[in-house]
Amino acid sequence: MEHITETATLKAPAERFTGDVYLNMIEAPTAPAHLAAALVRFTPSARTNWHSHANGQTLYITDGVGLVGTRDGNVVRIHAGQTVKCPAGEEHWHGATDTTLMAHIAMVVGDTDGDGTTWLEPVTDEQYAHALNTSN
User: How far apart are CA 77 and CA 96, in angstroms?
Assistant: First the structure.
């Protein structure tokens, strides 16, 4: 057993996120399991860039209200206690609403080269505003 008593809170890199986002790593992708997990906290209007995961991603929302959007225009409004699964290769983004913080545990299964995430361009303010207005 390994008991980890504290992990540092880090500011997420600006080249992958819009707004203020903070993360605490839970697990790094190491052999044999290759699980990467982190608690990620988004301030209002903060969000990820578009991205995809080679083996998919599972998001468990721990606090607040947020959004998850896909390239085909599908947007879901997410609340604490809900889970969203993004399939392998699906380009998507996630973040807080414009008025509410949102936190989730993000989980991906990586490969021998890391967590299998491909980072893409930022979600534009127009795309974000549209998502706010059309989320279900």
Answer: 9
Q: Which CATH number is 50's domain given?
A: 2.60.120.10
In a domain, 5, yes or no: no
Task: Tell me if 8 is assigned to some domain.
Answer: no
Give me the number of domains the chain comprises: 1
The per-residue pLDDT for 55 is: 93
pLDDT in tens, 25-81: 998 877 777 889 999 999 999 999 999 999 999 999 999 999 999 999 999 999 999
Q: Could you tell me if residue 21 is inside a domain?
A: yes
C-alpha dist (Å) from residue 36 to 52, 55, 110: 14, 11, 7
How many C-beta atoms surround the C-beta of residue 31 within 10 A? Answer: 6
Burial pattern 77-105, b for ≥16 Cβ within 10 A else e, equals ebeeeeebebeeebebbbbbbeeeebbbb
